[in-house]
Structure formats: structure tokens, C-alpha cells
């Protein structure tokens, strides 16, 4: 059969939607299906998803993409999964029912739990082992919250009836049969090293769950999934469904998948994803590097039979979601694309700075008690200045992370590869190049997260021979060069820092 009729499928389960994309051998999109799911905000600082809705949307997306491509399941050679990472599901293995909604990575309800676990040692207590800070971002405090607050959950967890998983694990378990299993085989309860490295329970060096950490968090180890390499064998999809018997051969957390999709395979390669949040990763090679400037240490990927590759990561909680907030909560813009023209209609931000510390500040400042602020307002300011300030906040936050990474690694970032929904905003990309004083490179395929999951799965089944082939697939679409003079750049960044410092310690 001709190569061009064969595909690799990627299931891309993100914070706001679930997609299934079919990729060709050239790394091009053949068909896409996408379904949004509800964002649930029960209380201030709480963010939840319904895991059953996500699972239903996954099935719909897979079924629809096969129909859209007008192909047969036998032309799909393998499936890769990528997912929002720290989002936490706990479910009953006998019924397949979640005991509570999924607690999303942005959720801040666990702050008191985190303070209790950190104790006198502070947020860096487990950093040498996990590469992470103790805060509301990783999965472990979320698991503990569910066990402590859902009636009977702890007893059921200790009795071995409950399973934990990040969304990749939840989908994998259901795709391989769920509570009913598949034929005579029980469902696979498994995750990959990149997702496991975001829980606060895995030892970065051994790539295994750490008994001592689980004990200190009060999490029964029998709830945890098996950890496997990112590129490897995750069984096949259950007989019932749209892709029966198709092997699942790659799992990567979404930001690591974007690294893979951008072909950031060598030490010093960096990318920034502009999604709901902003995530910059820098490949640091086969040895984990500990940050002194507020970055996280994480697993970048692992190919079966090879050493893991590590990365430094700077995570910013609010990126594209700030545009959504401007649209939905304030109704200042009619839709997301309109923000660019509005921002272009003014010469500058009019002195307005918006600091979106809605869930505190993540990297590199890590101030959970910060809250959002709009500063520099005068009668002159109008909604176009607000639109511009929102875009600029995205670029300023990226600069903070880039500066911290350079300080840690000693490697100058000469080119920043970018992906995610916001990279189609050309005003933002130019401002990003200006504020960073570096080239910003957009690839032809901007769906790099899904592409990374497809690459991982396709590599595992020999659809692509090696990493070199993937690099050659990675064509550039547009490069932005910095145009701003140093004086203006420094002045804008100085005022941004002043604005950010005004948000500290708001929550008492």
C-alpha cells in the first residue's frame, strides 16, 4: 500500500478541548476532529473537568476523524497520546466511575495541603528528588485532596479499589478496555515518564515511584500506574470502538510532545508553546539539571531501550486563557482573532500593564499568594490598550522564563521555536522577538503537540526511521527578527517588573 494512504493518529487531550489528528508520512495534517469540554469553576481558585465528558469526546473525535479522512482503521498504523499533564483523575477500577471530577493543573485549592507537606523545609523540600516545587501545580497534592475530602475515598484507595492517573492514564485505561477489559485482558493502567515526572512522586534519577514521597503525601502506592518509556508499547486499542486493535505506541505530556514535534532533540534546543498557559522547555541532555532560578526539572522524553532526555521548564499559568478572559469575562473583544487588529490600532500599551496572576505566579517567581492586577490606568486608556496589554503580558512572561533559563544553563537562546494557538498572532510574535531580542521561528505545522505524539508512536512502529528523518520533516513557516532598540526594550520590561511586584502577597 502506498505510504501516503497510511497514517499515524494523535489523540491530543488539552485543557480546553480534545482532538484527534491523522498525520501523513510527511508530517502533514490529513484530518482533524475537535470537541471542547466544559470548564467547571465550583469555587474561587478551583478548576475541574468531567473525566467522562473527556472520554466521550475522545471517542467522538477518533470516530469522526476516521470518517473525515474517509479511510479505514487498518490504514492507521499506530496511535500516540498527549495530554494536559498534572490534571488528576481518581476512579473506581471495578466500575470505571471517577470518584470526583478531574482536578485541573491550574487549580489552587491544595495550597494549605502544600504548606502542610512542605513544613519547615519549604517548597523545595523534594526538589532534589523530583525536580519540582511543592505547590498546587503537581498531581500529588490533588490526589491527597480527593482522598481526604471525598467520603470513603481513602478507605477505598487503601483497599486497592481506586486508581489514580493523569489524563493520559485515564484515556489509556479506557482505550484498552476500562472496567470490562478487552477480551480476557484487563485494561492497562500505565503512564509514561514525562507525565510521571509531573506528579511530585517520581524519582527523576530512577524513573520510579518513590515510596518515601508517597508515604509523606499519604498516597497508597497501589493507586499509581506503571511507568513506561514515552516511545514504546502501550498495548492496542480495545476491540470495540473506531480503531480496534491499533497499537498505542507513544505517550508524552503536552509540553514534552511539543518539544518532540519541534524536533528539539539536542542539548540547548528550546521551544515555547502558547496555549492556555505558556510553557518553555530547554533540552539539557541525558543528565537532569537543577535550576537556581525558579525553573522545573523534568523528563523531556525517553525512547524504549535508551537513556531518558531531560529538560528545564518554565511554566506560566496564564497565556491564551487571558485572551479568553478578555473575551468572556470582560467582553472587551468579540472573539480571539479580533485582539490583533484592536492591539494594532494603538501605537503602544498607553501605559497599561495587565499581570494575569489569576492562580498566583508560576515560573520563575512562584508566588502563590499573588493575584491579577491592571496597573498604569489613566483616562487615556481604552479597550484597544487593554487588548495590547494582554498580548504584551504574554511576551513579558516568556521573557522572564527565558532569562531564568539562560541564567541556569549558560546557553544563550538564539532562536526560539514557537507553537500553539497564539502563534498566528503576528503582532504578538513580532513583540516577542523584540522583547527577547532574539529570532522567533514558527514551523509550518503549528500543531506540534499532536505532531510530537504522532512522531513518538510512528517512530516506535518504524513509520519514521529515526530522529534525523523527523528533523528533516520540520519545515519553517516564518521567522520574526527583533526590531526594537535596547532603550525601549529595557524601559518596557522595567515597567512590567514594577507591575508584577504590585501583585505580590495579595492573598493573606
What does this structure look like?
The chain has 508 residues and is α/β, with parallel strands linked by helices. It has 16 helices and 22 strands. Strands 16-17-15-14-20-21-22 form a 7-stranded mixed β-sheet. A 5-stranded mixed β-sheet has the order 3-2-1-5-13, sandwiched between helices. A two-stranded antiparallel sheet has the order 4-7. The longest helix has 27 residues, at 383-409. The chain starts with 6 loop residues before the first strand and ends in a 7-residue tail after the last helix. 54% of the residues are buried. The mean pLDDT is 93.
For the largest sheet, list the strands in their spatial order. Answer: 16-17-15-14-20-21-22
Q: What is the percentage of strand-forming residues?
A: 15-25%
* Radius of gyration, in angstroms, nearest whole number: 22 Å
Q: Report the principal-axis shape.
A: globular
Intertermini distance: 65 Å
Q: How many beta-strand elements? A: 22
Q: What's the tally of helices?
A: 16
Low-confidence stretches: none
Q: Which class best fits the helix and strand makeup? A: alpha/beta
**Mind summarizing the main beta sheet?**
7 strands, mixed
Helix content: 25-40%
Average pLDDT metric: 93
Amino acid at each position: 500500500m502506498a505510504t501516503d494512504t497510511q497514517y499515524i493518529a494523535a489523540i491530543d487531550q488539552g485543557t480546553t478541548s480534545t482532538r484527534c489528528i491523522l498525520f501523513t508520512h510527511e508530517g502533514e495534517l490529513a484530518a482533524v476532529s475537535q470537541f471542547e469540554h466544559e470548564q467547571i469553576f465550583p469555587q474561587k481558585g478551583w478548576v475541574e473537568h468531567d473525566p467522562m465528558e473527556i472520554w466521550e469526546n475522545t471517542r467522538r473525535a477518533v470516530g469522526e476523524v476516521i470518517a473525515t479522512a474517509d479511510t479505514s482503521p487498518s490504514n492507521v498504523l499506530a496511535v500516540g497520546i498527549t495530554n494536559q499533564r498534572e490534571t488528576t483523575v481518581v476512579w473506581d477500577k471495578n466500575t470505571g466511575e471517577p470518584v470526583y471530577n478531574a482536578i485541573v493543573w491550574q487549580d489552587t485549592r491544595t495550597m494549605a495541603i502544600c504548606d502542610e507537606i512542605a513544613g519547615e523545609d519549604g517548597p523545595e523540600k523534594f526538589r532534589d528528588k523530583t525536580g519540582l516545587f511543592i505547590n498546587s501545580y503537581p498531581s500529588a497534592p490533588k490526589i491527597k485532596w480527593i482522598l481526604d475530602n471525598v467520603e470513603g475515598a481513602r478507605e477505598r484507595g487503601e483497599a486497592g479499589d481506586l486508581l489514580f492517573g493523569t489524563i493520559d492514564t485515564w484515556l489509556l485505561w479506557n482505550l484498552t478496555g476500562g472496567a470490562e477489559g478487552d477480551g480476557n485482558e484487563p485494561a492497562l493502567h500505565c503512564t509514561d515518564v514525562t507525565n510521571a515526572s509531573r506528579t511530585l512522586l517520581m524519582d527523576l534519577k530512577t524513573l520510579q515511584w518513590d515510596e518515601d514521597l508517597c508515604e509523606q503525601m499519604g498516597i497508597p502506592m497501589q493507586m499509581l500506574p506503571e511507568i513506561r518509556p514515552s516511545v514504546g508499547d502501550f498495548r492496542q486499542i480495545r476491540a470495540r470502538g473506531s480503531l480496534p486493535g491499533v497499537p498505542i505506541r507513544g505517550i508524552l505530556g503536552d509540553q514534552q510532545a511539543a518539544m518532540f514535534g519541534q524536533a528539539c532533540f539536542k542539548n540547548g534546543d528550546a521551544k515555547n508553546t502558547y496555549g492556555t498557559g505558556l510553557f518553555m522547555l530547554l533540552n539539557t541532555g541525558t543528565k537532569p539539571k537543577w535550576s537556581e532560578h525558579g525553573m522545573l526539572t523534568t523528563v523531556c522524553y525517553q525512547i524504549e531501550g535508551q537513556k531518558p532526555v531531560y529538560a528545564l521548564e518554565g511554566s506560566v499559568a496564564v497565556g491564551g486563557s487571558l485572551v479568553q478572559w478578555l473575551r468572556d469575562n470582560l467582553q472587551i473583544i468579540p472573539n480571539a482573532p479580533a485582539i490583533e487588529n484592536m492591539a494594532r490600532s494603538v501605537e503602544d500599551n498607553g501605559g497599561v500593564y495587565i499581570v494575569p496572576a489569576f492562580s498566583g505566579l508560576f515560573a520563575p517567581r512562584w508566588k502563590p499568594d499573588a493575584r491579577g492586577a491592571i496597573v498604569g490606568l489613566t483616562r487615556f486608556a481604552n479597550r484597544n490598550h487593554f487588548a495590547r496589554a494582554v498580548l504584551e503580558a504574554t511576551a513579558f512572561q516568556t521573557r522572564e522564563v527565558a532569562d531564568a533559563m539562560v541564567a541556569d544553563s549558560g546557553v544563550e537562546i538564539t532562536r526560539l521555536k514557537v507553537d500553539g494557538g497564539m502563534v498566528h498572532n503576528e503582532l504578538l510574535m513580532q513583540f516577542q522577538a523584540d522583547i527577547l531580542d532574539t529570532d522567533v521561528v514558527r514551523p509550518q505545522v503549528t500543531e506540534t503537540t499532536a505532531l510530537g505524539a504522532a512522531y513518538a508512536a510512528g517512530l516506535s512502529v518504524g513509520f519514521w526511521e529515526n530522529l534525523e528523518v523527523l528533523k528533516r520533516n520540520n519545515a519553517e513557516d516564518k521567522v520574526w527578527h527583533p526590531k526594537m532598540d535596547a532603550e525601549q526594550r529595557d524601559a518596557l520590561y522595567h515597567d512590567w517588573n514594577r507591575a508584577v511586584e504590585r501583585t505580590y502577597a495579595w492573598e493573606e
